[in-house]
Every structure is written in C-alpha cells, then in structure tokens.
From TrEMBL:
It comes from Leptothrix cholodnii (strain ATCC 51168 / LMG 8142 / SP-6). It comes from the Bacteria. GO terms for biological process: quaternary ammonium group transport. Transmembrane segments: none annotated. One of its GO terms (molecular function) is transmembrane transporter activity. The keyword Nucleotide-binding applies. Keywords: ATP-binding, Cell membrane, Membrane, Nucleotide-binding, Transport. GO terms for cellular component: ATP-binding cassette (ABC) transporter complex. This is ABC transporter-related protein. Residues 7-237 form the ABC transporter domain.
Length: 333
C-alpha cells in the first residue's frame, strides 16, 4: 500500500537527443526500502538517479516523493541527497566542515550545525577524525564522511551512485555490510546504482533490472533470481541456463540442472570442461550437434562435490540434461 513517503517515477523519459537514455519507466519505491538500479553500462540507471536527484531535467514524466510532485524542484528542495561515486569531499575543509557544509549554506547557526555534524560522524564512526582533511583519510573513511555529509539535511531518500566501485574487493564487501547497517538504523529509503548483480542481491529489498532505458524486471532479489522474467534478466543475474524447448525458451538454474546417462531419443550434450571449486563442481556443457566449438550453445551444471564425485565426469563424456518442471521458468519473448 502506498505510504506518504513513497518515491514514484511516472512515465519518466530522458532523451539526450542522440540517445534515449530512459525510455518511459514507471516505478514505485516503498518508503524505507533499499532499492538497487541494476544493469549494464549505458542502460540508463545513472540518468534515472540524476533525475531523481534533480541534477538532470526529465524530458517527460513525473517524480513524486511522499505524494508531492518534485519533478522540477531544485536538488536541495526535494528531500533527496546524493552520495557521489568520487565522494566529492572539499579538499580544503576538515571532515567536520565538510559534513556541516550544507547546513552552513542554509544559514544554520554554527553551534547547531556542528552538533549535528558530530552526531552524524559518530553514527559512521568517524568523529575521532573530525579535524582531519580528506586527503589524510582512506577510501573507506572518505566514503563514511561523504555519507554523513549527505545525511546532514535529513533527506527522505538517499541516492548512491556506484558507491562501492572505487574500493578494493575486500573493502567493498566490508562497506556493503556497513551500508546495509546504516540503512537499517536510519530507516530512510536508499536508491543505489550498481552494475554488480552480486551487490544488488546482497543489499536490495527491491532489485530493478534495467536494459536499454527500460525496466526488464523489478522485484525482491529472490523473485528476480528464482523467476527471471526475460532472457536478458536470466543472463544478467547469472547462474542460469537458457534452454530452448518445444514450448519456448526457459531458464533453469545451474544448480537445478541434472546430468544423467542419456536414454535413447534424448538430446545428448557433451561435457566441455570441468571446474573443481571445492564445495561445488561446475560442469560446462555444449551441444553435441554443434559444428564449431566456438559457436556451440553452452550450459553449466553446478553439482555438489559429493554428487560429482559419486559419478565423476570428464571432458568428452556424453550426458543428457534433465530438470524438474517446477525448476523451468518460461521466459517472455
Ligand atoms: N549528458 C549526456 N548527453 C548525451 N548522452 C548521454 C548523457 N549522459 C548519458 N548519455 C547516454 O545515455 C545512455 C544512458 O546513460 P547512463 O549514464 O544513464 O547509463 P548507466 O546505465 O548509468 O551507465 P554506466 O554504468 O556506464 O554509468 C548512454 O547511452 C549514454 O551514452
């Protein structure tokens, strides 16, 4: 049910002239949710985020926050705050001054803005660094300060543009957990742009998969993973096989594909490669009928180590692929 602080995108279009970045999308993000806009480079996710932030004027359509239309309001007047990819901290201001900056611009008295800035720095465990300059902080620390700064004006929605992409893989996983914790403790909506399906799965209540300026599917991580609506979503989310059947294309999860000795009349595939990964084994398969191995259709069966070792397979083995009807999801054309 709609609540007063839902964020709504209505028939939103961004046409830059030479490219139609966002081709008319409709989306409702429930208050307090963690939404990830997910998709490949150029699919329109950053343009969407920038329109929500007020940094880009929509060509058509509307944006509403809490039932109030904000489409043409200035970035500071709409109840959103943006945390940029580069963090964009002012290099000549201390951590405390960076966090207090927007309140200073609004004319909030010094004592009041500094008290709030300290409070936010405590939230992100950066208060001991209040007097430092940004150059004397690590990437992860700068990100925490950028978050505190974005929260200064008490936004209803926090917008995050690829917030983890500048971090090394170890820090990325650590900061991912922090983002989730902050989201839970702040209770506001987060809209987070990413091209990493792993990041979206780990964080989002609502995963929005975009392609060519359109929404291919919006749902919980589990819905999107267990029931991809289109071939694009199944391939982008990964760990799925796309299989042509007489009834049309279906998606079958790699861990739900079973390999058996072929019976007469069954389609036979060939084991192309076997990758041992410890707890599981990836068995890569290709169509036996393929004339050219480069162009062959390929599938993968992810087997537990126990089931693989009970009946080991090697490249060149001929097997049949089977799956339970409930594990095959028809894909929209
Ligand atoms: N200012 C601009 N002027 C013209 N075209 C633009 C502009 N900004 C983006 N585009 C184009 O609009 C399309 C969508 O871009 P957008 O940045 O929204 O995608 P994205 O999904 O965020 O991609 P990335 O992950 O690479 O940032 C692309 O084709 C891009 O080239």
């Amino acid at each position: 049910m709609s609540t007063r602080t839902d964020l709504e995108l209505i028939d939103l279009v961004k046409d830059y002239g030479q490219s139609l970045a966002v081709a008319g999308i409709n989306l409702k993000i429930a208050a307090g949710s963690y939404c990830c806009l997910l998709g490949p480079s150029g699919c329109g996710k950053t343009s969407t985020l920038r329109m929500i932030a007020g940094h880009e004027e929509p060509t058509e359509g509307q944006i509403a926050l809490g039932g109030r239309e904000i489409t043409h309001l200035s970035p500071a007047a709409r109840g959103t705050a943006m945390m940029f990819q580069s963090y964009a901290l002012f290099p000549h201001l201390t951590v405390l001054e960076n966090v207090a900056f927007s309140a200073r611009m609004k004319g909030v008295a010094r004592a009041e803005r500094e008290a709030r800035a300290h409070e936010l720095l405590q939230l992100v465990a950066m208060d001991p660094y209040a007097a430092r300059l940004p150059a004397a902080l690590s990437g992860g620390q700068q990100q925490r300060v950028a978050l505190a700064r974005a929260l200064m004006m008490r936004p209803k929605v926090l917008l995050l543009d690829e917030p983890l992409s500048a971090l090394d893989p170890f820090l990325r996983v650590k900061m991912r957990a922090e983002l989730k914790r902050w989201h839970q403790s702040l209770g506001m909506s987060f809209v987070h742009v990413t091209h990493s399906q792993e990041e979206a799965m780990a964080l989002a209540d609502l995963v929005v998969v975009m392609n060519h300026g359109r929404i291919e599917q919006a749902g919980s991580a589990r819905e999107v993973f267990e029931r991809p609506r289109t071939e694009f979503v199944a391939r982008f989310i990964g760990a799925h096989n796309i299989i042509d059947t007489p009834a049309g294309k279906v998606a079958v999860r790699c861990d739900r594909l079973n390999l058996v000795e072929p019976d007469a009349g069954e389609t036979v595939v060939t084991v192309a490669a076997v990758e041992y990964q410890g707890a599981q084994v990836q068995v890569h398969l290709m169509a036996e009928s393929a004339a050219d191995a480069e162009d062959a259709e390929r599938w993968t069966a992810t087997l537990s180590d126990a089931s693989f070792h009970a009946a080991p397979m090697a490249p060149g083995h001929r097997v049949a692929m089977r799956w339970w009807a409930a594990d095959a999801h028809a894909l929209a054309a």
